[in-house]
Amino acid sequence: MNCWRQNVRFVLNLKISCRTHVVYFSAHPSHASILKELRDTKPLQQVHAQVTVSNLFDNVFLCNRLMNAYASCGLIDQAQIIFSQISNKNLVSWTILVSGLTKNGRFSEAIDVFQEMVVREIRPNEVTISTVLPAFGKLGVALMGKSVHCYWIRHNFGYNVFVETGLVHMYSKFGCMKIARKVFDTMPERNVVSCNAIISGYSENGFGEEALSMFNKMRRKGFSGDIFTLTSLLSSPDLRVGSAIHGLLIGAGYKNDPLVKTALMELYINCDFVDDACSIFKEIDKKDLVAWTLMLRGFSKSGNWRRTIEHFNNMMGEDGIMLDSVSLITILSGCSFSGALQQGRRVHALVIKTGFQADIFTGSSLIDMYANCASMEDAKTCFEYMEEKDVACWNTLISGYGMIGRGNEAIELFSKMKNSGLVPDESTFVSVLCSCSNEGLVDLGLQIFDRMTKLWNIIPSSKHYACVIDLLGRSGRVNEAYSLMKRMHLQPGVEILSSLVTACRIYKNFEVGVEVSRKLFELKPNDAGYYVLLSNMYALAGDWDCARTSRTYLKSNNLKKNPGRSSIEISGEIFTFMASQKDHLFYVEINEFLKDLIFKIKSEGYEVDTDSVFLDVSNDVKKDILFHHSEKLAIAFGLMRTKPGTVIRVTKNLRICKDCHSACKFVSKVYARVLVIKDANRFHVFRDGVCSCRDWW
User: Fold this and answer.
1) DSSP 612
2) Phi, psi dihedral angles at 569 (to 5 degrees)
3) Where are the alpha helices (DSSP H) in 604-657?
4) What is the percent of the chain where pLDDT is above 70?
């Protein structure tokens, strides 16, 4: 070591460019002191070369500095190479690598290195542990994170504000806020970062009031907080809390801070105030990729496809903005939601052009987009192209087959997934059970549900129960579905209750239907849709007085049911229609075409199903309502504006009614077109007068 200290100095006039100034080393500095200052790649490589030619790689202290410099510059692969070349690695070497991997988002590798270190009986210290805790939190590996916490306690490390803050943050990421709070409360020493960890934990897990309460306690104890404290409070989905913090940020002088503006945008987008978010976006002078992507998500989430595409085009034309995987996934999600296959293909081309096709998350989003546009062959091609497939990729493809009524292929894919060595998770079984429900595979679905708990040790969630109850309900086994709901270890949620109500309406089990509808009101007293469900139930039972009472209650409380809305993509543009919308720009043209369409399909045997209208009005009024359902308007427009043989793809926000389902069969036969209708539950592919659901929906 003494020899190294005497000989380590060299004469080098090294110019290092920094962001704000230029530093010159000309007074025989040591390699280590230079490495401590380096933040740019080129001078770092110069020093690395000097270390190599000076044959100083046996010095672990110098190698550690070199590793740390590369990790700080984001060149973690180079840091790993240097680590592998160190013959006498010490604790600092391992800690630097774990820290570098974590800070560069390589969480799985960080955990692997930490495990290898422990296996080699190199005891981690408080710095090592504090650097690996974020990796556990990010990946949600709760068991491993808790094991390290136990290790910390068992070896009597004592109190350390950095480790304890890391534990608070880790448990918050796991959603274990009680444990996070317990760790926080037992900390003898706290700093602003500790307080930020618990506040952001509460906010991100939906405990807005607790986050605000903790913030107020922090202020009373003399912690003034910082910009991160305030922005973490903005992650709460509670608009009241967010609005109050917005005022505090303005008062504290952070109004024009880009980080604050981005956080405010996210708050308003999460609370569905997209126009407010857009106003803030316009105020930002230098918009970065995060701001552009966030606004893209806002437009996509609001369902405003025209603004989504316009924003995306502006984003691509902006100088200095390079699309990343997050922005591509966001626009793919919008294409998926809107059923915009043509735009989805365009984005797929961008994915290839920008080199993100091998990215597992982007690949999964491509599969999801094609599956939600009923283009399963494209979805399958994307799936097979991926070299690495995680559980989410398999789940997405399984779900896609299930939605389009190809349940047997979904089950076959599930078997292949198990044979590949991957362990199915909760979402896998939701996808498989939904596939069984859509295909009418009742006995197989019940068998898989039973094996899920016994063989895979997965405790059924409300989503699993919803699938099984839907499976039983659709097959007419309403009483069994009702009995299963009553035996559940969970309180039935909206998804379960609404599924059962639908089954009761179809099979005219009014007694159970009315009872379940009332339970729905208790959960969602201000949701107009459930009052309409109850009204429809009474109407089917012939109790028009109760049906009118339910609808009167709707009007007196100013509750409005979401109208039927259907959209169709033509030449890359989305056109949206609402039921009975007579002020549409193309209504006159569409109405004339519809009259001819109805005449043609009637001549082929179509009969209007007036029972699909649950209103006490004349049959003529019922027919007019049915003829102007949103999907009929969209289909008519599609037939008018596309060439013969073109597939008509329509996305609808509600479940397709029996009359429209029947009409679509005849339209597909009379006009020799394939109709792909995506409703709230599944896909219906009409071809030559037959639907892919085989009337099971």
Assistant:
1) G
2) -100, 125
3) 619-627, 630-641
4) 89
